[in-house]
Amino acid sequence: MSKRRDVEEHVRALGEIEGIMVAMKNLALMESHKLNRVLTMQHRVVEEIETAGREFLSYHPNFTPDSSGHDLFLVIGAERGFCGDFNDRLLSVLDRHLRATGDQNPVLIVVGRKLLQRAERHKRIAAFVEGPTVADEVPSVLMRVIEQVRDVTARHPREARAAVTAVYHDAVTEEVMIRPLRPFQPALPEANEQSFAPVLTLEPDVFFAQLVDLYLFSLLHAIVYDALMAESRARLAHLESALQRLDGDRAELLRKRNILRQEEITEEIEVLMLSRFTLPHRQ
Q1: What is the DSSP code (8-state) at residue 171?
Q2: 125: domain range?
Q3: Residues 6+ apart with CB under 8 A from 134
Q4: For residue 210, pLDDT beyond 50
Q5: How much is the pTM?
Q6: Is residue 59 in a domain?
Q7: Number of H helices, E strands in the chain
Q8: Burial class (CB in 10 A: 0-12, 13-18, 19+), 274
Q9: More confident call, 78 vs 197
Q10: Does 16 reside within a domain?
Q11: Taking CA atoms, which of 18, 32, 72, 200 is between 20 and 30 Å from 245?
């Protein structure tokens, strides 16, 4: 009896865990649908700004920015758990990139609490920012990221004078991306043979400075939304796999419980039969 009760208690515990995991899965699914709508609009904004920037530089090539110097890496990982090897893959790609470029002393800004726990082997974590858990938190997280980038750049003026390089999971390809946040490249000359120079209401230097600010701000939004979407999808896949294993464990426990119950019934029948044959006959 005690064995069967232990098994039944285990089955109830697994049922409670399954309920929690199903709720987490549903939340991740809802967040993925919301992020999908936001990402579509954000990518469109970035593409339009890139088009305007390339056209401007085609007629004002002297504004092409200098990108010399060491990169400052903005590594965007998971804030919460249940993502499998999400953070490990991110750091593995970063390690390969650092070995290939010969960067022995990288300057890192880490976004995501779970990523920070994995990234402690990188000695130069210059700053840490808690990552977003839902899409509504992205703007406030980005403001803290920008503050940290400015602070780290001020503390490492010689090492971090080049563009920030974002390392994150792309939501479309589900691959780890290493993307320098550099402004636009000029369009090919043949692309402007039949076009006209853009008409500006601002001085070119003022216009370009504001356009670059807008572009980097929009691009950072797109990248963080991408990373959050990839995290939600990784969590969905991990929870789905865990639920399948949980269902298998529950099925095995239920089978074991039924076997134990059958054994108990068999023992009860044997006791009844033995008691019947051992009772004294009345005279």
Answers
A1: T
A2: 26-188+200-236
A3: 31
A4: yes
A5: 0.76
A6: yes
A7: 5, 5
A8: exposed
A9: 78
A10: no
A11: 32
- Average pLDDT (76-87) is 88
Pairing of strands 176-180, 164-169: antiparallel
Q: Are 109 and 74 in contact (CB under 8 A)?
A: yes
CATH of residue 207's domain is 3.40.1380.10
Condensed to tens digits (0 to 9), the pLDDT of residues 122-137 reads: 667 889 999 998 888 9
109, β-bridge pairs:
74, 127
183: left (phi over 0), alpha (psi -120 to 50) or beta: beta
The encoded tokens of residue 106 equal 């990288």
**88-116 pLDDT per residue, tens:** 999 999 999 988 988 777 889 999 999 99
Count CB-CB contacts under 10 A for residue 49: 20
Q: How many domains does the chain have?
A: 1
Angle ∠(79,84,87) on CA atoms, nearest 5: 50
**pLDDT tens column, 122-181:** 667 889 999 998 888 999 999 999 899 888 877 766 554 457 899 999 988 889 999 988
Tokens of 210: 């504001």
d(CA 14, CA 20): 10
